[in-house]
Amino acid sequence: PTISILCLSREKQRRLFAVLSAVLLLGNVELQPRKSVYHHDEAVAVRNTDVVSLISQLLRVKQETLLAALTAKRARASGETLIINYRLPEAIAARDAMAKCLYGALFDWIVLQVNHALLSKKDTLRDHQGNSIGVLDIFGFEDFGPYNSFEQLCINYANEHLQYYFNQHVFKYEQEEYRKEGI
């Protein structure tokens, strides 16, 4: 099986591979500490701006915007926007988070394209909501300390609702049994 099974146009295929290339190239972005000109704290700089230039072309964003996202964050305080320089560990985490976010969005888009390719012509002509079977197990809550992700929040939330449904079902069943037995 190849990507042609998805019936993607050449332009969509080109964009898919451009984003995937950008994700891979983000891992090659080298960050180094530098002294901030305006403050006494440490800031970071990108050592290989040629890689950032290529990534910005692939993602169709300005190189300055990408450099700013990799080296600093914006915060709002008292109606003002402050630019706060990352330290090296924060910049590395931001770079890796950017790659993860891009890859996640690309994966979701590919799944959407696969689902669309699997729909019959009849289903595409009408407002098809799709059929699905959801399988969840009640394993329990997991806590990975400070590294819990949004995905883990959703898993824990689903587990909580499954447990609630299970409890409601069991208690209603037991109450019905008690009622039948006159207890």
TrEMBL record:
Protein name per the record: Myosin motor domain-containing protein
Domain Myosin motor: 1-183
UniProt keyword list: Actin-binding, ATP-binding, Cytoplasm, Motor protein, Myosin, Nucleotide-binding
GO terms of molecular function: actin filament binding; ATP binding; GTPase activator activity; microfilament motor activity
Main location, first listed in the record: cytoplasm
InterPro entries reported in the protein's UniProt record: Kinesin_motor_dom_sf (IPR036961), Myo9 (IPR046987), Myosin_head_motor_dom-like (IPR001609), P-loop_NTPase (IPR027417)
Keyword ATP-binding: yes
Entry's Gene Ontology BP terms: intracellular signal transduction
Pfam families reported for this sequence: Myosin_head
